[in-house]
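User: Please predict structures.

Assistant: First:
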Amino acid sequence: MPNESSRRSRDPHRAREKANYDSPIASREYLLELIAAEQVPMPQEQLEEVLGYRDDDAREALRRRLQAMVRDGQLFRNRRGGYLSFDHMDLVKGRVQSHPDGFGFVRPEGGGNDVFLPAREMRTVMDGDRVAAKISARDGGRAEGALIAVLERAHETLVGRYHRESGIDFVVADDKRLVHDVLLNRDVGHAAEPGDIVLVRVTEYPSQHSQPVGVIERVLGREHSPGIEVTIALNAHQIPHHWGEDLLESIASIDDKVRPDDKRDRVDLRELPFVTIDGADARDFDDAVYCEARAGGFRLYVAIADVAHYVQIGSPLDAEAQRRGTSVYFPSEVVPMLPEVLSNGLCSLNPEVDRLCLVCRMDVDDDGAIGRFEFFEGLIHSQARLIYDDVAGLLFDGDKPGKGPITRVADDLRSLERVYRALAKARRRRHAIEFETREVTFRFNAQRKIESIQPYARNEAHLLIEECMIAANICAARFLKKRKLPALYRIHEGANPDKLPNLIEFLASFGIPLGAGNPTPRDFAEVVAAARERPESDMIQTVVLRSLLQASYSPNPKVGHFGLALDDYAHFTSPIRRYPDLLVHRAIKHWLRHESQAGYAYDFAQMTQLGESCSLYERRAEDATRDAADWLKCEYLQKHVGDQFEGLVTGVTSFGLFVQLNDLMIDGLVHVTALKRDYYQFDAAHHRLVGERSGREYRLGDRLRVEVIGVDMEARKIDFDLVTDIGGARDIKPQRRKKKKNRRQR
């Protein structure tokens, strides 16, 4: 048998281990190689013998490393203590997605079709857990799995409502995907009262024969406590929202003014009339724009706050920004990615003060094509803080400038209007998909309780800024792609192939064609344009949007952005609130200073990992804000039980109609039993309910008047009663009913 030194010398990562540890042991890669080569379960004792480990310290270090590899999903340990490589077990690793009816799925990490988990397999896991499963059966095209191991638990804590029934204390999770009630440990006291919303730490996870057990860590509030919707969302989705002491100490010396030394070696643009254009309630301004007309086109400047100057790689501030990934915008407040001293101070392009920027200067022709462009570190002095409504009034509605800062920059704004029209022309030429989804805003009273919900309309000033930002993002992607620097691109792969057949069928029911095969952005753009003139436009656009894959972050520059019909796209314009933008800034600044990849802080593997985490944190923020908005909508309608509203059928199921109220954008259910006296059959192919006797038909897009009859805050469910149809609900052709009658007579 080879001796210890010869075995260790074969480890390809031996030098790295020696550099990192005083008493190095075999690297993870080498352990995987040894275990895979054995092709049978390999106990720790056998590994110790192969590696020549004879002292207790080495054996303990090996035990800990093997345990960590099991935890991280690199190895599996069987009941006899033998270690196996997952790559040689034909297993699927992925996250559990649970269903309220008890069954679930594993979403494979490497992509591909979900693996079905029957209810018996779901007893030991919770939604979001990372697991390894073995394919146990196939039912047609669907694979069914059996759980082999839980690799990582998704929930150390959860948010729910405390109950006490028949002497048993338990918590029902607020997230309805968490179907297990958590029993409370009777030996640990708490101050909660039944009905309180609490944060529970899970101490025992579910097994085949027992429910999860936990202890209440904190009482978050009562159902109607001011701001409870945000408190629930933050804790349920485990969003970081407190600044640590180390971080606060590291930024304590930050001044509110740009230091003279920081202004050196920058392009001085303080004489140019840059402006910021944002919403009336915006508090951080990360982009400023200026445009000048030139022969045959325009020179457009997009200046973005130089966050990378203040957030140094590896600092406590950087670590926290990376941990958050994005700012989270709730209806009533914002949880920022960066502390306010930066997000609302030095990194906010406030008017009438000097600010450090990373600037994209680009030449745009009259047809909206971007020609020469360049990036540089700049210094600006914003001339005005403008809001969308005022700019739209001046440029697109024919209003006079009136008073205030807009009067000083009115002529410059007209150049911005012209470059916007050119860029919009190019957007239409490449057939980008132009969704016109509706939004709402929430109004609160002095006690932070919801007072009203109002529709929010984007105007052309929003689109003006959006086109300028897209242009700068295109340039950033092209800049990085040419220089082959690892960075994050904003990618969008197009339609979800699993949803495409249903989408084609759905659109056909409205007479809107979408060819089979691989639809292009142009195909989708034409569908959205065709739907725009229909009363069901919002609903059709929502269905189309849900059929597309979700955009994400990746260092792969070849994917492009399907929705925008662009080959090159990166997020450059919001480093105050998005970590991927900060990474793009760091890459650009590195090249500007070194004109080389040498010394760059990131490699492709690191950037891949950052892309995955940033995409995950983005989805986490979206889920949290949606949950908070749903809570507020339910709370609002509690005050309107018995009131009637008009709405649109946005979903049809075997148990009823989902109706979205006009303007309020609130969804509720008209149960099938609330329809006119009849037995209704569900026609899934045509998204409709059809009465057996009457032939009455209800389908997607129908307009109804409904009455609010119940709101369940705990389940986030709203029930409607049907008052009358306004337009759409119809009888099936009389001759079909007549034929049925004749058959019965015979």
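Second:
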Amino acid sequence: MRNKITKASLFILNIAIVVFAFLMIAKFKTKTRVVIANYWRSLIPFLVIWIGSGIWGLKYSLKTVNSGADMARRVLKCDVVAAAIIFGLMFVFNLFHYSRAIVLGTMLGSVVIELFLYVGMYYALRFRTENEAFASTKLVTHSKELEESQSPKFFIDSASAVPAISDTTYVPPYVEVSPENSIMMPLWEKYLAGNQELFDFINDYLDLTRFGKEETLVLDSAHVYNIENEEKGSRQLFINLHKINDHRRLNQYIIRVNEMLVDGGVYICHGQTILQRRNNVLKRYTPYLGIFIYGFEFILKRVFPKLPVLQGWYFAITKGRGRALSETEMLGRFYFCGFELIHKREINGTMYFILKKTGAPRTDKNPTYGPFIRLKRLGKDGKVIYVKKLRTMHPYSEYLQSYVYATGDLEEGGKFKNDFRVTSWGKVFRKLWIDELSQFLNFFKGELGLVGVRALSEHYFSLYPPDMQELRLKTKPGLLPPFYADMPKTFEEIVESERRYLLQKLEKPFRTDWKYFWKGVWNIVVKRARSG
């Protein structure tokens, strides 16, 4: 859904809603085709009255709506007026000969669908407007950061926990303060007096003797207004004891924290991960009942926020509180907002993070959050093509590329043995190639061949030798690359594998693709080959 929803689009949507409601009611009647044939002409004046009342009652002017309740009132007002006019023409003036069941059913169906869609669209549009400067959610993600992070697909083994990045104490670039001015004793005696484990964790990984009391802020609040008046660069240490799951505008909050801290400043926070939430629900309600409760939460708090209209209902219902966040998404948001992880630890059922400010927040307004990603790739003759794929990683994973390199174990050929950024369902989709199916759209558009070298981003294309760059642009990229036929293990071997394929294809196109296709299929099906 776009940021700007025009009156014309809402107008057309309303026509589609009425027609859909009419067809659904006709579907439940006997002799459906006869019903449609008899009443489709009568549907035209019905539509004129219905749409006319919407124009009169400003149903299509979302920008003038003040709240979701206001939007619902407008829908009901317009539809009641339309119903009164239609029934008046039918029963008072006897101008139309509708079936009462069809008329009433079409009206009720239209009202219900309009209330769901229009109110949801209002909330989604408001969310987009409020978060325009702090990253908004779109159905398809297409950002520069995502382009740069998309290296050839990694091998994925069993699920792994998000690793901690350091076991050394962080010494900030400030001079040591006197004991009476240090924040250490106030943390021990006052702020964290009832949480010895948290104090020990902070003390283990921070040199608290360098943080002054006047330069430290400790809060237990989810509201940004508690820190919005803090001067920029005025704090060395900020600790928030409230779960980040309850922050209404999480990115906005973290960005404000970034602005408040000096360079090298520390932000300490905590949040409940989806795994911790799941374990808590199963423990509290027993595994039998808990699995249904968690399933409902999964749909409301993980599916709804990522889809148009449903996203609006999610924020209307939850007000952004108690949001479901994976540990990977939390880290990705921190890195997106200009922080890096010092260390993390699970304490009392939530994950605590010690973060260091390393720079300004990203300016990318379109991080991965929706179900699809769009990748900019180079096609034949250097033509730019856009490939869509189903997202298989947690939101904000692209901002953790450096973190993954710093903490991940590499196999032969530079592949990640375990990439914690991939979701559990994403691993299934990758094994079954479901995430790749949307690339057939590029195949049918003639941008990709069935067999061919992998379509690369400009960044990864630039890593190839000049002669291979020239050779690569002479043919179309393909859905099935020669990698699956030769199974190279290093980048150099990949280059040579593609060189052999391209030279053969330029000489004998059909024969080469035929040979590589069946050899690749054999390796995939029999030898369980996966992409490099």
